[in-house]
Amino acid sequence: MKDASFRQLGAALEDLAHDIMRACRRAARTIAVLPWPALAACCVALALVISILPLALFLFVAFMAVKLVVGAFFVDARRRRRGLHQGKMYRHDARASHADR
Length: 101
Prior knowledge:
about 100 residues
């Protein structure tokens, strides 16, 4: 990469940092003028988002992974069963039967 590319990247990152700081300051000013009940509701909502949402996403990914693994085993077992009933053999089955001879 050329030096100009690094300068452009640095400028883009600096702009991003300024935008994030501006948003944080605005959020701090908004929270500062909230009444206590609204502030409590905001804190509860933020706590739910921080704790429950990652847990839900993790559980979703974990159950999908388990579903894929279990599904792969069942599909493989069905293929083997169907192949044996139709007189077909897979390569690894043929090798095993060939080694038995």
